[in-house]
Design goal:
- This protein folds into three domains: 87 residues, Ubiquitin-like (UB roll); 92 residues, Translation factors (Elongation Factor Tu (Ef-tu), domain 3), CATH 2.40.30.10; 129 residues, Rossmann fold.
- It is of the alpha/beta class.
- Strand 10 and strand 11 form a beta hairpin.
- The two termini are 23 Å apart.
- The strands form four sheets. It has a six-stranded antiparallel sheet with strand order 11-10-13-8-9-12.
- Helix 6 packs parallel to helix 7.
- The radius of gyration is 20 Å and the shape is globular.
Length: 342
């Protein structure tokens, strides 16, 4: 086995990387809190500068890393596999803080309820103090002997219980087990917080939040936290689903919109035959309603095609790359197709 070394300048450490292992995988396996989001080359959260050495760049979205950025020496750590010993430094935008380390915790399931026909809400109380995290981040959850999976917190930071929306996906051994067998009182292993697609409270412009399916979880955390902290700029939520039975928490968000004049909530159904709700593709609804996104901040969470379409549309309407924060929700099939690590 040909071992390469990865010198991460902010961590002041050199790490061994196995053949085929990305820089991000190497960092996370060694406990380095490297900034990241989707781990699939779509969101750009792990953008880094290659200081020394050569890497192979695996396929990635052109929106996450442009040709100009690549020419300027930037890479995506999640898609960069070292070909030689390398030295890198992650890129932190102005006003951003470097990530802190994830904690390994234990917790207990305290409640379970159905949100839709294939999404359940799990509330988990960590042992000890409430988990410190930023709205929009996620946790790696481990149930029994099954491999851990990533799920976003849907509650506000500081709450004693963590809220997760777990969708049952076809071919998903973990989600099948969780839906069928996990019960209140069960123990859960948590590693959190993770992810860089979190609320930026320093931003004073309007906020766009686009969710698909259980991607509503981090959007819920972001919006509720922003409102609780007195954010007064306009917040537009677009929630895309296939049919009426795939929608959830509609009354909750409609209630928030009635209580907060700056909040606008728009569900969009793509496959409903007869409905009083708006119909079509959620990203097209955003494009039709909001033609100019200059000076906006966007938070997008959902399946890969929706996230890709939302990014392309938003950038075409003036959104800056640093103002897009995307969280991609993968099924096992998505991960296999993209080559992303599970």
């Amino acid at each position: 086995m040909n071992i390469k070394t990865v010198d991460i300048r902010q961590a002041r450490t050199r790490l061994p990387a196995r053949d085929g292992q990305s820089i991000l995988e190497t960092a996370l396996q060694n406990g380095i809190p490297y900034p990241h989001g989707c781990r699939s080359g779509r969101c750009g959260s792990c953008k880094s500068r290659l200081i020394e050495g050569e890497v192979e760049m695996l396929p990635h979205s052109r929106f996450a890393l442009t040709n100009e950025e690549k020419a300027g020496g930037l890479i995506l750590a999640c898609r960069a596999v070292p070909k030689t010993d390398v030295a890198v430094a992650w890129v932190v935008a102005a006003g951003e803080a470097a990530p802190g380390p994830a904690q390994k915790l234990q917790g207990m399931v305290v409640s379970i309820d159905d949100l839709t026909h294939d999404i359940k809400r799990f509330r988990i109380r960590p042992d000890g103090a409430a988990l410190a995290f930023s709205a929009g981040q996620y946790a790696d959850l481990g149930f029994g002997e099954l491999p851990s999976r990533s799920y976003s917190m849907a509650n506000r930071p500081g709450d004693p219980e963590l809220e997760f929306h777990i969708r049952r996906v076809r071919g998903g051994a973990v989600s099948d087990y969780v839906h069928a067998f996990v019960k209140t009182g069960d123990r859960v292993a948590l590693e959190a917080p993770r992810g860089a697609s979190h609320l930026r409270e320093y931003h004073g412009g309007p906020m766009l939040c686009v969710a698909g399916g259980s991607g509503l979880a981090p959007i819920k955390s972001i919006v509720e936290t922003a409102l609780a902290h007195g954010v007064r700029q306009a917040i537009h939520i677009y929630f895309g689903a296939r049919t009426e039975r795939d929608l959830y928490l509609v009354e909750h968000f409609e209630g928030l919109a009635r209580q907060n004049a700056n909040l606008f909530f728009t569900p969009v159904l793509s496959r409903a035959k007869t409905t009083p709700r708006r119909q079509g593709i959620v990203t097209q609804a955003v494009a039709d309603d909001l033609p100019d996104l200059a000076n906006w901040k966007a938070y997008v969470a959902g399946p890969p095609p929706m996230v890709d379409a939302a990014m392309e549309s938003a950038f075409a309407r003036g959104l800056k790359a640093e103002d897009m924060h995307a969280d991609v929700f993968f099924t096992p099939q998505d991960q296999a197709a993209s080559g992303a690590a599970e």
